[in-house]
Write a structure and sequence with these properties.
Length: 289
């Protein structure tokens, strides 16, 4: 689904999947942080959906393990969920099909997001897919996927490291991108700014002075450093205090301590959008809860 050597999202005949093959790197539990978020802040979206909601794992890679895990986790909330793994590489699809069962299918496809039997997905999770595209292609990819969503649907465009200790994702709906979530494994964390290397494609090149995401990570690192005295009480307490300080400084932090204690921070997209505020979230006209 991603690319090497200049991928494109140009229109192609409808019988061909839209996109190109990614490296396919994956590992068990790599996307657990995003799955936990879908079952946390996004649980209401799943609960209020009609019967048999469809969730798509777009570009699941060389192994279907993250798709299988997604299905198992979502069934704890919606036993009737239908999970579809979509991959552009036919060999990957063929290798995954022996794992199919009730509510779990694997199909060949790309950004056109095919759903067996028809219907539109409520959620599309696309991790480490757009990372390999050009930044200029991100809006077209978002638009293509969002156009396939069910009413009230959600695209999650994210990136994470090889074992899922660092992750970041953008929540995109028909209204456009709404939030950026950053997630860390707190044990052994030296500074929150290390997540910069895992920012989604829309932001990875924007971590420079003058951009909102750079200002956010700088503010978070500074707050984390100032809370060093709390390290003796545990990394969780130190991180929560740092996020609270960032929120109190005016950054539009969404959610509260129950998410921060998990090593998770979500901010409104306007504060970090490319070309947006370059000092504090308060400059974007937002206040945290």
């Amino acid at each position: 689904m991603g690319a090497r050597g200049g991928p494109t999202l140009e229109r192609v005949p409808s019988e061909r999947p839209v996109g190109v093959v990614t490296r396919g790197t994956t590992n068990p539990n790599r996307l657990r942080r995003c799955d936990r978020w879908l079952l946390g802040p996004e649980a209401a979206r799943l609960r209020r959906a009609g019967p048999d909601p469809v969730v798509v794992d777009l570009g699941y890679g060389a192994s279907p393990v993250t798709t299988v895990e997604l299905a198992a986790r979502l069934r704890t909330l919606r036993p009737d969920v239908r999970v579809v793994g979509v991959e552009i590489d036919p060999e990957r699809v063929a290798a995954a099909r022996p794992l199919e069962g009730p509510g779990l299918r694997f199909v060949r496809g790309g950004f056109e997001v095919p759903v067996p039997g028809g219907g539109r997905p409520l959620v599309v999770r696309a991790f480490n897919v757009l990372r390999q595209y050009d930044e200029a292609e991100v809006p077209a990819a978002w638009a293509a996927v969002v156009d396939r969503l069910a009413p009230g649907g959600l695209l999650v465009d994210g990136t994470c490291d090889e074992v899922g200790r660092l992750a970041a994702w953008v929540a995109v709906t028909a209204d456009g991108p709404g939030s950026l979530t950053l997630s860390w494994r707190l044990r052994g964390l030296e500074r929150p700014g290390v997540v910069a290397e895992r920012l989604p494609k829309a932001l990875i090149h924007r971590n420079v002075p003058g951009e909102g995401v750079h200002a956010l990570l700088t503010a978070l690192d500074d707050a984390f450093a100032r809370q060093s005295a709390l390290a003796s009480f545990g990394m969780r307490q130190r991180f929560v205090a740092a996020v609270r300080a960032v929120r109190d400084a005016g950054w539009p932090v969404l959610g509260g301590p129950s998410r921060w204690r998990l090593g998770e921070l979500t901010v409104a997209w306007d504060a970090v959008a490319p070309g947006g505020s370059a000092t504090t979230g308060g400059d974007a006209g937002h206040q945290g809860p």
